[in-house]
Amino acid sequence: MLTTCPIIILFVSVSCQYGTYPQDHEQLSADERIVIRFSHVVGEDTPKGQASRKFAELVESRTDGYVEVQVFPNSFLYRDGEEFDALLKGDVQMIAPSTSKVTKLVPEWQVIDLPFAFNSDQEVNEYLESPAGQVLWDKLKREGLYPLAFWNNGFKQMTNNRNPLIDLADFKNLRFRVMSSEVLEEQFSLLGAQAHVDAFDQVYPLLEKGEIDAQENTFSNIVNKNIHTQQEYMTISNHGYLGYLVLMNEKFWQNLSDEIQIVLLESMQEVTEWERGIAEEINRENRQTLEQCDCVNLHELTHEERVVWERALEPLYDSFTEQFGDKYIHYIPKFKKERSYN
Ligand code: LMR
């Protein structure tokens, strides 16, 4: 039975306790339901695209349609650079940006962008459960962002249309699209390239128009947006990690009843475990697509080549430490062991 209490409508939330959900959501008008607008920038067949849809389905079925999660993929509502504002103003209630994109608000999250910091999804996930990760999560809350989960995508690879990227000299003057993170900008400066910060939905058109030459992204994002069709060379470098913060507007979250919060958290936990499996699978399949398409020249970085890149990029660790101290770096797995090239 629906009890009498303040109604939650789009953009306006008022908390109230419901003993049970209404049996037939078809009978409810839009302004009697809780509507969560969830905006993201990638395609529906990517790990994030599939996970957000699954989250919407689970929540809808577990609340008999009382909570409706409306998913807007492909920058349909908001692009990079607009998403955070939209969330903080309450124009949408959920977003799932990459960790790199939160660094304008919480620069310490750049630790995830440090090149060659992690060797597997699991290492990233464990880092985020460490004391350093805990501090990073807490900083989001101070910005009005309620973190619900971390979703994996995978490791970034580099593509360009000029030459294979193997030696450091190969980067000279290449115009590389990057996400908005200073570590990423500096990464390409150190390699002798030029970094361009652009929204994700601009990568394909900018490559097509020849306004940029190169970009870094996961197999899933490259294949899903046909980026490889505009690029001749790919280096499988696994140099940087791409994962997502699944965020809700903090005030919206606090205004939900305990009962609804529990359903959302349970559903999110289930989806997050599932997402970790499909992220790996989708990236593996998309890598195979590129290996078999005969459409892009692939080079996998050898151990020796990787060591040269790692050394060239070491100053990023120094500047990160200068800015934020060594507490975040300390929990990166490779600093717990000896570096491979020492
Ligand atoms: C990018 O901008 O390259 C990625 O963050 C897109 C995404 O959300 O995976």
Give keywords.
342 residues; alpha/beta; disordered C terminus; binds (2S)-2-hydroxybutanedioic acid; D-Maltodextrin-Binding Protein, domain 2; 38% helix; nine-stranded mixed sheet; 2 domains; 9 strands; 12 helices; disordered N terminus
The overall pLDDT, averaged over residues, is 91
CATH superfamily of the largest domain: Bacterial extracellular solute-binding protein, family 7
- Name the helix and strand elements from N-terminus to C-terminus, one letter apiece: EHEHEHHEEHEHEHEHHEHHH
Biggest beta sheet summary: 9 strands, mixed
> Mind telling me which CATH architecture of the largest domain this is?
3-Layer(aba) Sandwich
CATH topology category name of the largest domain = D-Maltodextrin-Binding Protein, domain 2
Radius of gyration equals 21 Å
Share of residues in strands: 15-25%
Level of helix content?
A: 25-40%
Count of distinct structural domains: 2
Q: How many extended strands?
A: 9
Topology:
Elements: E1 34-39, H1 47-62, E2 67-72, H2 83-89, E3 94-95, H3 121-129, H4 131-142, E4 145-160, E5 175-178, H5 182-190, E6 194-197, H6 203-209, E7 214-217, H7 219-224, E8 233-249, H8 250-254, H9 258-292, E9 297-300, H10 303-313, H11 315-324, H12 327-330
Helix pairs in contact: 1-9
The protein binds (2S)-2-hydroxybutanedioic acid (LMR).
